[in-house]
Amino acid sequence: MRSFGAATRMPTLAVVLSLIRERGAVSRVELAGATGFTQATMTRAVRKLEDLDLVHEVGTVPSNQGKPRRLVGIKADARYMIGLQFDAYSGTGVVVDLAGGVVAQRDLIAPGLRPPETVIAELAEAVRLLLKDAAVPRDRVLGVGLATYGPQDRKAGVLLTPQPTPDWQGHPLAVSLSKATGIPVAVENDATAAGIGIQTLSGAASSFVVVYMCGGIGAGLILDGQPYRGVTSNGLELGHISVDALGPQCTCGNRGCLDTAAGPTAVMEQALADPLLAGRIESGAGPLAAILSIGRAALDGDAAAADLIDASAQKLAIATVTLVNLFDIGRVVLAGRAFADLGPTYRDTLQAILDQAVFMRHVHATRVELAPDVTQAAAIGAATVVLRNLLESPDAP
Amino acid sequence: MRSFGAATRMPTLAVVLSLIRERGAVSRVELAGATGFTQATMTRAVRKLEDLDLVHEVGTVPSNQGKPRRLVGIKADARYMIGLQFDAYSGTGVVVDLAGGVVAQRDLIAPGLRPPETVIAELAEAVRLLLKDAAVPRDRVLGVGLATYGPQDRKAGVLLTPQPTPDWQGHPLAVSLSKATGIPVAVENDATAAGIGIQTLSGAASSFVVVYMCGGIGAGLILDGQPYRGVTSNGLELGHISVDALGPQCTCGNRGCLDTAAGPTAVMEQALADPLLAGRIESGAGPLAAILSIGRAALDGDAAAADLIDASAQKLAIATVTLVNLFDIGRVVLAGRAFADLGPTYRDTLQAILDQAVFMRHVHATRVELAPDVTQAAAIGAATVVLRNLLESPDAP
């Protein structure tokens, strides 16, 4: 059994860098005071961050001791990270600077059922175009973070699933994309990446669950700013928890899975079975495009479409109650492209059901909210993972 | 939102004490080597444990440096902890020494629907009798750990639920029992306590989920030896996750809850509705006595009883798949008095269903096992909580 310990406390460098980012321009004394670290630890940490070219001196302020205090700040444009998120049906890419700002973004070609070699060549081309859009030279890029579905061997950068086609299972995704781009690549679970991205977008470290819906349904858990990983970094397979113990067999082996009952594929299949709704879905559309089309129909006032979305939201809400009851958590954040138009609809249904069904509701409220950028959160988080990996590496103090 | 940080890494003193317990007689040098702590940290930690009267010098061994090395060992009988576990239908109490040995145990009077004042007087009497059985003077007792259902305010030692009667909600359980016994009292969730007790019984720190069934169903999570707490110490309300999104309304506000569908109360109600099975249950029996009676009938070859138990086990298995899929964990341990006779039956059903339905089964196996002592694990864990609280208190280094 692998150890959970390493992931459960934010490493010193990451804490210090976040704080410098948050405060803008800050003295070592102020940093030591805010973190509780000793002066000596803080001096070492700031020096390391300077060595990594992530922070620099941005000015001085007078001090009571005569000698002025030097202020450090983020060197926002010294280094950049690229974040890519894809599943079979969609993808998006971003370039993020050290201050967490998105300096370029573009949609990726959806991988569909094409083999990994083809998709990796397309991802490498997307990296080239993103850097061109951002006017960022390749040698300023710390790495590419790649957020996608699991199970995955995160350390090795390999997918452990035959989705979308058997070719992908065991394909050395990180190594191949790194070869194709000349940039180091880290792989991350998409829902977990969304959780990390939500923090990048919203600032301070906190604790929340992410309910993620794109081509399928997933979830992530952030505790005090750090992702919950589980023994194989494959935690929170929300799409494959049962919402109907006697329900239909899922391809995963379980019965009555949430994804099969309420996910984009389920909504698509239910819509295609209804002659009046089937026409709302473009021929050949995948599950993500389908749920977005049905969602727009619902928002336009189509009652049958609204019923389908409502049934999906209610089942997702029941599964979210499961998350909240198990993890005893007070904040649920929705992310993923499927929430692009439907975010408020799902949010309101989830909030209403959580308010009446969470076991701990008399002890603490549970708030449901939308990610600051539902579509980009996972890609932005994937970019942040690159920086986090650097700060958490054993070479860092 | 409260912080999760404090609970996610085992504190120094607890690590050192476990290691001393595990090794028997050990030098400071060996302790430093095994933990990775510095010699100075280890010297401080051992001195603190000596000050607390928990360890002492047990001998010396020759060393290469000429001066013999002093060995420290647990002072097993210097201090004791009392652990009590109760719900409405049953209770058990233990006295545990510093080596983790159970030196006395007795069943408690089941609280039933009596008011908290009466039950607390009975618990205080049980404490007196336990100490008499163990021949342990009261001044050697570090505290009483009390494991029971949630939601609870663990820090305040107060139950936040109107179960079994509204009198219990908000009753100052820890303060009242402490007054009645003259011993400090700590409150803990019963399933979490069972997880801590399983570690006391089996040695080394590890990561696993506990599926706990006594009068109802609960769960706990231990990560690297430390309990997962959630924002209000009320994590893993397994009994109130839905296994049927369209199922009957539960009193908790959720629909199709596991406890309502498969717990002891469900088995009792289903059995009482069957004229042939109803006779197996003693008049006036509570849910725990009922499931134990039906279980014994099933083990004796009654097919209808076996069907009821099998249906319960299958639903518990589906909920356990949910736990495993969400937490990405490789070990499930069953504890609680309801498994006293039926442990192997439930274990085998859970293992069979997990083997075919866990999402990560191709990445890692998930093993189901019985706690070393299903009936006492929670009480033994409650006793261990007393020692852990002492070692984790801010006064400890």
From TrEMBL, chains A, B:
Source taxon at top rank: Bacteria
Domain HTH marR-type: 14-55
Keywords: Kinase, Transferase
GO molecular function annotations of the record: DNA-binding transcription factor activity; kinase activity
Keyword Transferase: yes
UniProt xrefs under InterPro entries: ATPase_NBD, HTH_MarR-typ, ROK, WH-like_DNA-bd_sf, WH_DNA-bd_sf
Keyword Transferase: yes
Family, as annotated: Belongs to the ROK (NagC/XylR) family.
Protein's name according to its UniProt entry: Sugar kinase
Taxonomic source organism: Glycomyces algeriensis
